[in-house]
Amino acid sequence: MGKRILIKGGCIVNEGKCFDGSLVIEDEKIVEILTAGQHPETPADETADVSGCYVLPGIIDSHVHFREPGLTEKADIESESRAAAAGGVTSFMDMPNTVPQTTTLEALADKYRRAAGSSHVNYSFFFGATNDNAVLFPQLDIHRTPGIKLFMGSSTGNMLVDRDEALERIFSAAGPLPIMAHCEDTGIINRNMALAKEGHGDDPDVSLHPLIRSEEACIRSTEKAVALARKHHARLHVAHISTAEELELFRGGEDSSITAEACVGHLYFSSQDYARLGARIKVNPAIKSPVDQFMLREALSNGCITTIATDHAPHLLSQKEGGCVRAASGMPMVQFSLVAMLELVDLKVLTIERMVQLMAHNPALLFEVRRRGFIRQGYQADLVIVRPQAPWTVTKDVIESKCQWSPLEGHTFNWHVEQTICNGHTVYNHGVVDRDYIGQPLLFR
Fold it and tell me: Which residues does 386 contact at the CB level (< 8 Å), separation at least 6?
């Protein structure tokens, strides 16, 4: 018998409900869920009083770039999993555009070996599609691989799949694995860039980024991905939807095999923020107009969006200098995604119950994560404890990411992550990450 830990006095948010209660953890798992007034079957060895706090399932971030191997001057699995733990994220799914790219079975196995020695939270890794590696898909372990990442548009890492016959093979060969697609039409982007350079020089100002990586570029590519998924009966999850028009392809949620992700950056910022933050919020696809932002926020509650993720993508600040050509695309968000979305809860954009569904329940359901993502008896005890009305300001000294900056520096949040519990172990506690703790590989299906 392991140590029994009682977490009492908090408001538990789970499966559409918010109620005062307590949890008992033993041997990494949730063994009892108690409502107010109920008592554990047997006494606990340790009690944590979290009165005034909310107890949520640990956040599952299904879209991160932790940069290891090959790009570790920006970030690595250790540093970014530390940032995840500090932000209430207990599980992550990492993308394949590293060096080498995760497009071979050997490269995929190497990432798992690395994480087994350095990740402070639970981990998994997407397999990257190329123009010619669909033949490897049947060899992937569907119980250890969350899905296949497909770049249907040029992005960081030059993993563009641009041949129609290759796309047909990928969508037909994916089998039970979801395809997570980055959808932007490279031809449209290249034409827009050429026009921008004609009028604005070789490195157009970053405020033109949403005109270069335009709404049309996103819409045409997403339409193509949806058509391919329907033709081949594949499971498609479109990453980082950024336009109002794309949302129409997912309205009503009638096809559960074709789903959409919204990213924190597109929900939190709009094109109006380029004047203030410049290239710090340059991402692909681009952060677009306030109207797009408003419609994305609406889509969190109307069924068009299935998951919220970060697309956490650190760069050194020196690599973020310049405009649409020179500045790198991507920003670090994993440490602040939960508090940013709780701010939207305070703004009545969505309920806290819906936020938990989009950031914990739905990622677990969509990728068929085993026994995580919910507060349920017998499930792994992945939890985050957050306190409302506890103002604090993002400063450089609280940033765990290796890149050591955030577009949110100077912003004051009213919610505070107090503790993050991963597999029953307190990996983050009031500002301190347990650097000795190592998470577990996620299992699927």
Answer: 53, 54, 56, 88, 338, 339, 342, 415, 416, 417, 418
Distance in angstroms (rounded) separating the CA atoms of residues 302 and 309: 17
Cβ atoms 60, 17 nearer than 8 A? no
The single-letter code of the amino acid at 120 is H
Q: Assess contact for 379 and 14: CB atoms under 8 A.
A: no
In sequence order, the 6+-apart residues with CB closer than 8 A to the CB of 195 are: none
Identify the residue whose tokens are 């305070």.
346
pLDDT along the chain (445 residues), means of 10: 90 98 97 93 93 98 98 98 98 98 98 98 98 96 98 70 93 97 96 96 98 97 97 98 96 82 98 98 98 98 96 98 98 98 98 98 98 98 98 98 98 98 98 98 98
- Return the DSSP state at 255: -
- Could you give the CA distance from residue 193 to residue 153 in angstroms, rounded to a whole number? 14
Residue 136, Ramachandran bin (φ over 0: left; ψ between -120 and 50: alpha; else beta): alpha
Long-range Cβ contacts of 405-411 (<8 Å, 24+ apart): 405/280, 405/317, 405/332, 406/331, 406/332, 406/333, 406/335, 406/336, 407/269, 407/277, 407/280, 407/281, 407/331, 408/336, 408/340
How far is 294 from 141, CA to CA, in rounded Å? 39
Rounded Cα distance between 140 and 144, Å, is: 8
Beta bridge partners of 60: 91
Beta strands in 147-263 (DSSP E): 148-152, 179-183, 236-238, 258-263
Residues annotated as part of the active site: 311
Identify which of 193, 287, 185 has the alpha carbon closest to the alpha carbon of residue 243: 287
- Calpha distance 358→267 (Å, rounded): 13
Taking the C-alpha atoms of residue 385 and residue 281, their distance in angstroms, rounded to an integer, is 28
CA dihedral sign, ordered 118, 26, 16, 348:
negative
Beta bridge partners of 426: 421
The rounded distance, in Å, linking the Cα atoms of 385 and 70 is 34
Instruction: Give me the residue label for tokens 């499966």.
Output: 15
Give residue for tokens 């949040």. 413
Q: How would you classify the pairing of strands 416-422 and 383-387? A: antiparallel
